[in-house]
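Q: What changes when FE2/S2 (inorganic) cluster is included in the input?
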Amino acid sequence: MRITVNVDGTRYTDEVEPRMSLVHYLRERLGKTGTVIGCDTSNCGACTVHLDGHSVKSCSVLAVQADGCEVTTIEGLARDGQMHPVQQAFHDNHALQCGFCTPGMIMQAIDLLADDPDPDENAVRHGLEGNLCRCTGYQNIVRAVRDAAQKMAPGAGPAAEQVSDSEITSRAPSHTGGGN
Ligand code: FES
Ligand code: FES
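A: The predicted holo structure follows.
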């Protein structure tokens, strides 16, 4: 089937098998290996991306379901060489150990903060309960999300402005891929 998807600001048109999952499309066709596969059974959240602005586990979504949609991966967050405030907060709060869960955690945290810009600790833990960290570094992950929330609050300075500027647009050049 032929799909057209906007990923991290670039439009792609590809032929895909109907059974191909979105995470495999992102990694194998587009080379977006920042999105990782932990379980491939929708348990761990490592593969979390945004589909039309909402987090999804991309191992549980078919590539054909993303046809006509906007996908944002961890690789599409930085702007002008500046990390997204949530990425920066993970760095500042040492919220990763091996880093395998980190892309999915960050994508889920951004979605969580879009729904609740000032979550308390319980709300952060609840919002991230679908994302597993095998290094069990949850304490600093929660701290990082709350730190990001403060820095992204309206009027909090450059980080807040960066978020408002960071909407993915579909103006980027198009790319037509081949394949089966
Ligand atoms: S790889 Fe998708 S949830 Fe684990
Ligand atoms: S930092 Fe290793 S799995 Fe979370």
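Observations recorded in class: Confidence is low (pLDDT under 50) at residues 165-174, 176-180.
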